[in-house]
Design a protein that fits this description.
Elements (H helix, E strand, L loop, with lengths): L2 H24 L2 E6 L3 E9 L3 E7 L2 E7 L8 E7 L3 E3 L2 H8 L11 E13 L2 E10 L2 E16 L6 E12 L15 E11 L7
Antiparallel strand pairs: 1-4, 2-3, 2-11, 3-6, 4-5, 5-7, 7-8, 8-9, 9-10, 10-11
Length: 201
């Protein structure tokens, strides 16, 4: 493992530690985010005629959530770039190549929020920084919160989030296959969080 890989792991650990510290300061609930409770999907337009879709199979992070003050929310996520996949093997292999995620040199990606602001009822703008292929870029996401409601039966309340955004792959050094594949990559994240009750501690 290269020194750069160790530095990236240390950065990811630091981000998660900062989120945990910030969460305790805000008295918000802290939740782990991974592929068991969320999905991270992406799509690109091909030739302006169709959409190609893919997803990431492995990621983990921490979400500090206070439903009484959603603007205090913070999130940091690390994604395994090697887990990127599309509908057929050739496309999945291409995503790992140096022309795209270059997983041999940059095996992980990071996102950390900086600010969450309300833009409409139940709609929030999440400003943060993403690091892909060792390149950091600002990333604006839009998050919609579905009000928590009890699941059928006696189970705990749950909150569902749909997060969308867009990023230019050329800004991250991925310029291959233009103009066959659009420069803009559309992101969609779904998360289902089982909320802690006041008696959970």
């Amino acid at each position: 493992m290269t020194g750069g890989g160790s530095a990236r792991r240390a950065l990811a650990g630091s981000l998660l530690a900062l989120v945990a510290l910030h969460a305790s300061t805000l008295a918000g609930d802290l939740y782990r985010i991974d592929e068991h409770v969320a999905s991270v999907e992406f799509s690109v337009d091909g030739l302006g005629l169709f959409s190609e879709r893919g997803s990431f199979g492995r990621f983990h992070g921490l979400l500090s959530l206070d439903l009484a003050r959603p603007e205090a929310t913070t999130i940091a996520v690390t994604t395994d770039a090697k887990s990127a996949m599309m509908g057929w093997a050739a496309a999945t292999a291409q995503l790992s190549s140096s022309a795209y995620f270059d997983v041999a040199r940059y095996p992980v990606m990071h996102f950390a929020s900086r600010q969450v602001t309300r833009s409409a009822p139940d709609l929030y703008r999440v400003a943060g920084t993403v690091e892909i292929r060792g390149i950091e870029r600002p990333l604006q996401l839009q998050a919609r919160l579905v009000h928590p409601a009890h699941t059928p039966g006696p189970g705990p309340a749950a909150a569902d989030f749909v997060v969308t955004g867009e990023i230019r792959r050329s800004a991250l050094g991925m310029t291959a296959d233009r103009p066959l594949i659009s420069d803009f990559v559309h992101l969609t994240i779904h998360a289902h969080i089982l909320l802690r009750s006041a008696t959970d501690g």
